[in-house]
Amino acid sequence: MKDHPNYYQQWATCYATVGEHFSHVLIDLGYLRLLPIPDKRHTLMVVLFLQAPNEDSLPNDDEAAVLTRIGDVLNDSLNTSIDASYVGFIASDNQCRFCFCTGTTSTHEQTVSHVMSQFPEYRYASHVIEDDDWDIYTEGLFHVHQHYECIKHSAVITRFEEHGDPLTKPRPVDHWFYFRNESDRTLFVEKICKEGFQIEGDYPEDFQDNGEFPFGVNISRVDSVDRQNVFEYTSFLWNLAYEHYGIYDGWGAVSETEE
Length: 259
What we know:
By secondary structure, the protein is of the alpha+beta class. It has two domains: 11-140, Alpha-Beta Plaits (2-Layer Sandwich), CATH 3.30.70; 167-253, 2-Layer Sandwich (Alpha-Beta Plaits), CATH 3.30.70. It is built from five helices and ten strands; from the N terminus they run βββαββαβαβαββαβ. Strands 1-2-4-5-3-6 form a six-stranded antiparallel beta sheet, with helices on both faces. α3 (135-162) crosses α5. The longest helix has 28 residues, at 135-162. It is globular.
């Protein structure tokens, strides 16, 4: 799967309330553009019981590092044994659930048992769910990620309101993006300019250390900043950036007050 020409790893993390529990979600967004994947119709869930949860029933920093290591080892072993794809985890309620999508599950128990023997302090369980439509990924992990993005946008708007901004006056709104290479950024810019945006800054590769996404661009357009409009155009921009293998890094505007 990782040899697929349209796949590249793009991990994102967020915190949100899922059901009754505050949760930490990690998701590899790289699989979104590959869906549907007809030869991977099962989700293997490996559930670990946390050793040292914090007051939110989530792993503390030290345990989070151990869980990252366990996820990496599970990924390497399950990818080799059953061609499983590690798509993310959700930690909540004193547990961490690692999610792997796969086509065959006949030998997963042996592989998981071998990996977990290296971490004897952890109690664990594993089970397989038939998941033709990747619902655990799309309706679970990705849904939480989208909800988290909306919360971040709403928090900016709430700060405007707290400063007496009635949100009725359109204003220049800036947006920031990062891409893997100059070609992806150029294609994105060509499309975004047709939507009425203008380029405020076109950052070279050495603009900042942004990992695998060093090519930045800052755009702006006069828009309303009420919640409905913000959610609409930020969703559009997130999807367009993703279509061009990029990251949408948020937006900003100047707060306005009634005269």
